[in-house]
Amino acid sequence: MRLALSVAVLALGQPALALAQSGPPSEVPDGWTMQLGGALIAGPAWQGSDDTAASLFPDVRVSYGDRFFASIPEGVGYNLVSSDAWRAGPIAKIRFGRDEEDGGSPFRISGESDELRGLGDIDAAGEVGVFVERRFGEGAAWRLRGEVRQGFGGHEGVLADASLTYQTRLGATLVSMGPRVSLASEDYMQTYFGIDPAQSAGAGLAVYSADGGLLSYGLGASVILPVSRNSAVTVFGSVERLGDAAADSPLIRERGSETQVTIGIGYGFRFGL
């Protein structure tokens, strides 16, 4: 599933949102910090699926001040630019593969899909690129973020993600919400939604050549409930719609769904190293 498995999400909701990165650099602890936690997520078994799978994701995050960060949901990155208004730098992420037998989540605990049989497996892919983030408004409540990444391994496409997030506090509770959009090149679309003659024969679906363009668009929200000074529970969810290039694939039209819904709950505990 895209929100949880691509980590582009995941993109999306951000399970057990990193406490150390929730505010501007002036609020971020100095030195090395680590956060340990996990998230229970229910969502599509694969990107575009109408079958639901539940996965239990580990959430391990390491950061150094307001510069270096590393985690499964957010990838590995470095803030070459870091101020109360701007963040920018290189980033690398992993997109987990797709398994034709069950959908492919490495952390799946229940639910699966057999709609991919005959299409073959897709290996895990690395994605490297750059990000830019602008915070603005009273208390830097608004965050506009963009990423561009080149894939290698399981896919060799280019992806561009953009999101606008509004963040506010209700007492000690932190609420975030906003829209997001993803674009993908033809190479990415063909890998995940295209169907070549061999796949057509194996899966019983019509041949389809996917164009690049709009991959998905939607809304996401999260609520962070502090448990203690260094720990919190996060409840999150998202609703996304696939773009035409993906939704027009026979795989989606006949066996999947254009609308993708993900919900989850996570817990994280942060400590210094």
Helix/sheet category: mainly beta
CATH topology grouping: Outer membrane phospholipase (ompla), Chain C
How much helix, percentage-wise, in residues? 10-25%
Query: In DSSP terms, counting alpha (H) and pi (I) runs of 4 or more, how many helices?
Result: 5
Poorly predicted runs are: 1-23
CATH architecture: Beta Barrel
What is the β-strand count?
A: 14
**Largest sheet geometry:** 12 strands, antiparallel, barrel
**Strand order of the main beta sheet, please?**
1-2-3-4-6-8-9-10-11-12-13-14
The shape, in one word, is globular
Beta-strand portion reads: over 45%
Question: Which CATH top level class fits?
Answer: Mainly Beta
What does this entry look like structurally?
The chain has 273 residues and is mostly beta strands. It has one domain (2-272): Outer membrane phospholipase (ompla), Chain C. It has helices at 2-6, 186-193, 197-203, 244-247, 250-255, and strands at 32-44, 52-64, 68-71, 75-78, 81-82, 86-95, 108-110, 125-136, 142-153, 158-170, 173-184, 213-228, 231-242, 259-272. A hairpin with a 4-residue loop joins strand 9 (142-153) and strand 10 (158-170). Residues 1-23 have low confidence and may be disordered.
